[in-house]
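Hi, here's the filled form for the chain we discussed.

Project: internal
Contact: R.S.
Residues: 119
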Amino acid sequence: MASKYVTGYNPFQDFLLQSILFGVDLLDKKMFADIYSSFVYILQNILDNDEDIIHLDFEIKGNKDNIKFIGKNAITAIWLSGVFPEEIDEVLNNSKFIIGDRLYKFNKKTKTLTHVKIK
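And the returned structure, exactly as it came back:
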């Protein structure tokens, strides 16, 4: 069963969906610099400290049917999920961290981010 897509919740998802709708090949290696620049622009309009953008580090993997944007560090993974914490150093320095009502865990080896709701 699919979930409903809601615009405005995650600016990265919004950008990527619009790119796909306009026929951009997100897997084209020549597009990486443009995608990276767009992500920087998004972060400049969200983050309080533009210097934190240096932590943006991701890769794009997939095929024509499935594309993954993989954060190479915890803060990029959480940003790509549409969450923008104020304590960036805390997120970078810990593999477990709490934001709002969720406990997040970032696996540095597999580059996966998981979360559970805290009761």
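Let me know if anything looks off before we file it.
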